[in-house]
Amino acid sequence: MVPIIDPARIRPRPHLKFHFDASFPRIWHHGGPGSTHLWNGLNMLFPQGERFFVRSVNHYLDQLEDAPALRAQVKAFFAQEGKHAREHQAYIELLESQGYDLSGFIAVYQRLVWGFIDKYSPPPLRLAMTAALEHFTAVMSENTLTLGVFADGHPAMRQLIEWHAAEEIEHKAVAFEVLRKVAPGYAVRTAGLFAGALSLFGLWFFATVTLLRQEPGLGWGGLLRELWRAHRKDPVLVRVLWRGVKEYLRPSFHPLQNDNLHLARAHLAAIDAAAPAAVEAA
Ligand SMILES: [Fe+2]
Ligand SMILES: [Fe+2]
Question: Residues whose CB is under 5 A from ligand 2 (ion)?
Fold first, then answer.
């Protein structure tokens, strides 16, 4: 059975403000440098990644003229991803102000996305990568809201990630629905899964190592120990990759089969309740 998405439920919250300033610590996760930079590494992927998602789906906007409900969801998805990208970009700038040199990583990342994936892969594959990456993000988001992943972290980061996670769950089926409409084959969906997984986990690892290499006195031995310590505390890479691939390979898979919308709604309702006037104005 094909689940139904309620388009009225996907809504950006542009009024939200996150407070990252000069007082924000370099090591903000109690798990230490490994855990901190694992999540910082993921943060570094968001702005470019989310803009790639928007471009990939936007390519097909004209083909959604006969599906106004899905088109409305797509517009809300764009607004949410745009806000996510801006907030994570602000955090990247904070990392740079703390002294981390991210230029090498960002140059490689941009070259991969703009110079290779955007240039050489066909639009259906880019859309399929987006749909698969949205699934990995939704799995991670559910974990974030249920496992207390950030209970051990700085409250500002926890607020940012949990808000992002909740909105990811809210719009988790949008790119998948567009893919089902314009390129419904299992082969392209699976190709998108493997290309997306390779890009996400490869770049995430590279970003994490880039940051850990810049921790004073750590060296390669310390770096490996920190990575192992972070993995022992929370094996997020393995957990998300394993569950994400296993679920997505099922031919009958649909993102709404994972019953987690209530988690997102409870969290977002609390955010909205905390700022009713701003929500009204948004
Ligand atoms: Fe996002
Ligand atoms: Fe998303």
Answer: 168
